[in-house]
Amino acid sequence: MLSRRVPHDLEPTPWGRLLAERRAHGAALLDLTEANPSRVGLSGAGPGELGALAHVAGARYEPDPRGSEAARAAVSAYYAARGIEVDPTHLVLTAGTSEAYAHLFRLLADPGGRFLIPAPSYPLFEPLAALEGVLLERYRLAFYGGWYLELDSVERAFRQGARGVIVVQPNHPTGSCLTPGEIEHLEELCDAHGAAIISDEVFGDFPWPPAASPLPSLLGKRRVPTFVLSGLSKVCGMPGMKVSWIAAAGPTAAREQALAGLEWIADLFLSVGSPVQAALPRLLEARHAFQPRVRARIGENLTALRALVARRPEFELLPAAGGWVAVLRAPHVRSDEEWALELLRHDVVVHPGHFYELEGGAYLVLSLIIEPRTLTAGLARLEALAGRA
User: Fold this and answer.
1) What distance in Å separates the CA atoms of residue 291 and residue 381, rounded to the nearest whole number?
2) How far is CA 382 from CA 16, 26, 56, 269, 365, in A?
3) Is 135 exposed, middle or buried (0-12, 13-18, 19+ CB in 10 A)?
């Protein structure tokens, strides 16, 4: 009865089954993977922000497929504060980055068209691509003391054909950004193959301390059509508001054609609610209080992880430019799956690296925005297990 776009086998992995069992038994879990700021004491939505949703302007329904002029002007002002010029007419609001990806898959490719995605990366692209009837090819990010674009893998992926290339700046979970030279090479390939760039920059405001400046953006002058994604979920710690945006850059004619197509697609859905659009200028202002708190939390948790590595040099904290997660390489006496399962038996939740296609070691992926006492308690159990391994 169901289409092939929907998975017919929803059987959980062994890790997923064990996690469900521990929760069903009421275990007091130390969840080192929690990435929802509203569940770790970091919500950006306080009484003032919530009150802005009651503004009378939100009761008027005057739909604009790209989003209201005032809302897009607020997003433009956010970028201006980062030193990036974005014309409000080059913005399209969406109800989350997943919808933004879906719109761009529809815009750029016919069914069966291909997009290139990084590996390692967040396991979101496969189900979104399946729902939109497009195909994915992977290119590799390789670790040699730092993360580097594996140029040969990109060129091989292009040979299958590509309508677009997805980059994540900083990548999740590696926390890495492409170098200017790597971006230039990627643009050359896209130009030669008629492909666009989709740059997911939701974590761009969160460099790892002691760095304080936002991480590089692909907005600006680009030689190929480029679409930059971000939104309130990470910028302001408001995942429940469901407001994101696509900012278009690139050659003028191609950019305007793409924006006209995005407007047509968005007009079919009109999915961003009027109250949250009316409140968006006030909601974006909340980032000034939210982001320093998150950076402080990230810094405190990185200090705890570095202390573990100093005590136990068989662990390695992989370097990164920014983001909300860390990759910890554990001793290879167990696989990453075995480490994750054994920790779960001791009521500690971590993600095994293979969830993100991390290869070549026993990698564990941990959230950096969880409460420090939770991380400290979880690391103590991890250290105890390592002592018995």
Assistant:
1) 30
2) 19, 21, 52, 47, 13
3) middle
> Distance between CA atoms of 197 and 189, rounded to whole angstroms?
10
Nearest to 228 by CA among 256, 206, 203: 203
Angle among Cα 109, 234, 79 to the nearest 5 degrees reads: 80
The one-digit pLDDT tens for each residue of the chain (389 residues) are: 888 888 877 788 899 999 999 999 999 999 999 999 999 999 999 999 999 999 888 888 989 999 999 999 999 999 999 999 999 999 999 999 999 999 999 999 999 999 999 999 999 999 999 999 999 999 999 999 999 999 999 999 999 899 999 999 999 999 999 999 999 999 999 999 999 999 999 999 999 999 989 999 999 999 999 999 999 999 999 999 999 999 999 999 999 999 999 999 999 999 999 999 999 999 999 999 999 999 999 999 999 999 999 999 999 999 999 999 999 999 999 999 999 999 999 999 999 999 999 998 999 999 999 999 999 999 999 999 998 76
| CA gyration radius, the chain | 21
Q: Which amino acid is at 354?
A: H
Residue 332 Cα distances to 339, 346, 349, 361, angstroms: 9, 19, 19, 6
Where do the domains of the chain lie? Answer: 14-35+288-388, 59-285
Residues in the chain: 389
Question: Among 3.40.920.10, 3.30.470.20, 3.90.1150.10, 3.30.450.20, what is the CATH number of 14-35+288-388?
Answer: 3.90.1150.10
Contact at 8 Å (CB) between 321 and 208? yes
Calpha distance 166→227 (Å, rounded)? 10
**Nearest CA-CA partner of 320 in 233, 234, 211, 218:** 211
Contact (Cβ atoms closer than 8 angstroms) between residue 251 and residue 224: yes
Residue 255 Cα to chain centre, angstroms = 24
Under CATH, what is the fold of the domain 59-285? Aspartate Aminotransferase; domain 2 (3.40.640)
Whether the CB-CB separation of 225 and 343 falls below 8 Å is answered with: no
315 Cβ partners below 8 Å, 6+ apart?
308, 309, 328, 329, 330, 331, 386
